[in-house]
């Protein structure tokens, strides 16, 4: 996954955790790899306007909901991938800790982000479990709002990835969910926090990261080739949406 794989924190676990349905332990003060800062706790961004499907090859059309993962990647993949560059600039190579009580992920030194937990991935079984389905985790509804909204959207649009509680897939597929969720909820970025037995996928929202955003055209030359090499999509539609989001 190239650049995206660099934002895959990995290391050892510490602290008190809660059991997940996958048998892996998610820690409250876990530690691993990579850094940034926030001032407010996220409230779980609303979808706001209806998420729409691209119909026209001439101009992006926001008239109908997107009904497939491919359409969602076309709509949100470019700008979400772009934001990961800003996030990487802020966190550098700092280690991470997650505090479930405060609902934040921290990157040394003293860089904190409010989080929304989307779900967890088990390395042993290679399965994804949505946060709303992880009844043994003790996660609050507040910290799983985005996961719950994706579940509702998946049920309405018959997208199995969002509506099925557990899905068999590879570690790289975490980036697909991360990009879609980051784009749909206008998050500042997403992060994959590897705690040994598994990995937790979270989105974050922070002015600190948003201020790093660059709308210049040069980054497109790095972002878009990587995006289309990793996900199946209509390249023209995806590029149109990406350019529109960057106001180019």
Topology (elements, then pairings):
Layout: E1 8-9, E2 16-19, E3 25-28, H1 69-91, E4 96-99, E5 104-107, E6 111-122, E7 127-130, H2 145-157, H3 160-163, E8 166-168, H4 173-184, E9 189-194, E10 198-204, H5 207-210, H6 220-230, H7 235-245
Parallel strand pairs: 1-9
Antiparallel strand pairs: 2-3, 4-5, 5-6, 6-7, 6-10, 7-8, 9-10
Helix pairs in contact: 1-4, 1-6, 1-7
Written overview of the protein:
- With 248 residues, the protein is α+β, with helices and mostly antiparallel strands.
- It is 31% helix and 20% strand.
- The chain is built from seven helices and ten strands.
- The chain has helices at 69-91, 145-157, 160-163, 173-184, 207-210, 220-230, 235-245; strands spanning 8-9, 16-19, 25-28, 96-99, 104-107, 111-122, 127-130, 166-168, 189-194, 198-204.
- Strands 1, 4, 5, 6, 7, 8, 9 and 10 form an eight-stranded mixed β-sheet that branches. Strands 2-3 form a two-stranded antiparallel sheet.
- Strand 9 (189-194) and strand 10 (198-204) form a beta hairpin.
- Helix 1 crosses helix 4 (173-184) and helix 1 crosses helix 6.
- The longest helix is centred in the first third of the chain and has 23 residues, at 69-91.
- It is globular.
- It starts with 7 loop residues before the first strand and ends with a helix.
What structural category characterises the helix and strand content?
alpha+beta
- Estimate what percentage of residues fall within beta strands: 15-25%
The whole-angstrom Rg is 17 Å
Into which percent range does the helicity of residues fall?
A: 25-40%
Q: How far is the N terminus from the C terminus?
A: 26 Å
How confident overall, as mean pLDDT? 78
């Amino acid at each position: 996954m190239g650049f995206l794989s660099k934002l895959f924190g990995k290391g050892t676990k510490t602290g008190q955790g809660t059991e997940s349905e996958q048998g892996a332990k998610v820690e409250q003060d876990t530690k691993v790899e990579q850094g940034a800062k926030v001032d407010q706790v996220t409230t779980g961004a609303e979808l706001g306007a209806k998420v729409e499907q691209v119909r026209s090859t001439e101009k992006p059309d926001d008239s109908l909901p997107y009904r497939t993962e491919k359409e969602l990647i076309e709509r949100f993949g470019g700008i979400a991938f772009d934001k990961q560059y800003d996030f990487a600039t802020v966190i550098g190579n700092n280690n991470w800790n997650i505090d479930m009580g405060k609902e934040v992920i921290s990157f040394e030194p003293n860089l904190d982000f409010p989080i929304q937990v989307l779900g967890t991935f088990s390395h042993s079984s290679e399965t994804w479990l949505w946060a709303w389905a992880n009844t043994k985790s003790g996660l609050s509804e507040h910290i799983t709002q985005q996961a719950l909204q994706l579940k509702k959207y998946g049920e309405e649009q018959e997208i199995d990835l969002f509506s099925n509680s557990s899905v068999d897939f590879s570690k790289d597929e975490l980036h697909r969910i991360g990009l879609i969720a980051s784009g749909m909820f206008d998050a500042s970025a997403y992060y994959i926090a590897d705690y040994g037995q598994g990995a937790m996928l979270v989105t974050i929202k922070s002015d600190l990261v948003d201020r790093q955003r660059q709308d210049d055209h040069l980054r497109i030359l790095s972002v878009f080739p990587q995006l289309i090499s990793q996900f199946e999509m209509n390249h023209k539609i995806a590029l149109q949406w990406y350019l529109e989001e960057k106001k180019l």
